[in-house]
Amino acid sequence: MTDIIGVWVGAVLTLLVFSYLLGDTPLFRLAQAIFVGVAVGYAATVAIYLVLVPKLFAPLLADAATNWPLFVPLILGLLLFTKLRANWAPIGNLSIAFLFGVGAALAIGGALSGALAPQLAATIVSLSPAQGWGTVVNNLLLVIGTIGAFLSFRFITSAQRPALRALDGAARRWGYVGRWFVLVAFGAIFADTAVSRITILISRVYYLLHNWLLVIK
Amino acid sequence: MKWLTTAIAIGVGLIVLFDFFFSLPLVNAIGAAFREWTIILTAFAVLLGLINLLSVHLSRVLRRNEPSAGYSALVLVVAVLVFVIGLIFQVPSAPMNWIFDNVYVPLQGAFFALVAFFLATAAYRALRAKSIETTLMLLAALVVFIGQAPLVNAMTQAKEWVLNVPSTAGARGILLGVALGTIATGLRLITGMDRPYSE
Question: How many whole angstroms separate alpha carbon B17 and alpha carbon B34?
């Protein structure tokens, strides 16, 4: 029974959202409001039961003497709520500063080990003809494109010295070619996104026809 | 107060950064504790954001002549209802799973599916061969789009080539720029040159 109710609820909500194809209808706004409400309620419950209770409240209630360091995030967390009142908001900056400090350090580490190092390593490719000319051309394009795309985001004023100016001009031209690679990447990302969204659309239509209307098997 | 917030950001940032690069038992232990505390603080921040959102909607409901008061009331009612059910039954539980599977997932899927129509209209407006750049973008999009369907083998191969060579090169250049930008911004925060937390 709950399955049937669930399918009906899911189908009606899907149709409410699809009503946007007719314009910004009240039905669509209804779906928006329900979505925000559910997301808010669910996120709050997840934050409490999957983070705060197991990581903070349960250890403190079990053995506060041993787990006393957890009072620090508890106090910092409670200080965050001072942000709700403009007069007290500066006190909450202590917690925000903590979050920024950890966040900045993790971002640096993540950017170094997760993006910079692996992407640079992947760009160091062999140009040996032994692997076939097709691979050599592809690898060459990869290197030229990567450096060019990187240079295309170079926004500095021209150098004064003639030698530096020549170097600057070369980098600018390489960056111009690199922009082509960036646009190809944008095109590919656009197409990939469109395909993924169409796949989701098909899955929703299939849900309506298969689970709800039982028209197709 | 400003010196204290700056000191906290710099001190905490340096310890977590050292924890990332060096194998020192004490620093590693403190770094791990700071990361755990960050998760806890993020949960508090989520609750703060949710309270703020609900207070905005509550003020709309209480305000007179507010046209979207009805929708705001619905947001409040649904949020409180789901929250109360979550408090009673906890997460994960059968009632919360039912809400997630039959309300949240269909709504999220439908909203994402709706984007397909917007992308189609955006493609009609944006993807026009006016210059070399837009032609390249249009061609790449078409090859990847058509290559997804297993109709012509050559198209699938062309799609693989576009994704593996020029698209990878372009995306990699952007990623390198983003990584360097992230590192520069992170260093400015940790050294106290930027202090957005003091505002």
Answer: 11
- Shortest CA distance from B119: residue in chain A: A194
Are B1 and B194 within 8 A, CB to CB? no
Residues of chain A positioned with their CB less than 8 A from the CB of B97: none
Q: Where are the domains of chain B?
A: 1-88, 90-126, 127-192
The residues spanned by each domain of chain A are: 127-217
pLDDT in tens, chain A (217 residues): 668 999 999 999 999 999 999 999 999 999 999 999 999 999 999 999 999 999 999 999 999 999 999 999 999 999 999 999 989 999 999 999 999 999 999 999 999 999 999 999 999 999 888 889 999 999 999 999 999 999 998 877 777 788 888 888 899 999 999 999 999 999 999 999 999 999 999 999 999 999 999 998 8
Point out the residue among B5, B15, B108 whose CB comes nearest to the CB of A97: B5
Tell whether B179 is within 8 A of chain A (Cβ): yes
Beta strand residue intervals within chain A, DSSP E: none
Token pair listed for B5: 């917030």
Alpha helix segments (H runs only) across chain B: 2-21, 25-62, 69-89, 94-99, 105-126, 132-147, 153-164, 166-190
Chain B residues with CB-CB distance to A108 below 8 A: 17, 20, 182-183, 186-187, 190
Chain B neighbors of A5, CB-CB under 8 A: 102
Minimal Cβ distance to B132: which of A7, A73, A180: A180
Distance of alpha carbon A110 from alpha carbon A103, whole angstroms: 10
Interface contacts A/B by beta carbons within 8 Å? 417
Radius of gyration of chain B (CA): 25
**Cis bond before residue B196 (omega within 30° of 0):** no
Handedness of CA B137, B138, B140, B141 (dihedral sign): positive
| DSSP-derived secondary structure letter, B93 | -
Name every residue whose Cβ is closer than 8 Å to that of residue A159 and which is 6 or more positions away in sequence.
Answer: A165, A167, A168
Distance to chain A for B151, nearest Cα, Å: 15
Touching A: B residues 110-139, CB under 8 Å: 110-117, 119-120, 123, 127, 132-134, 136-139
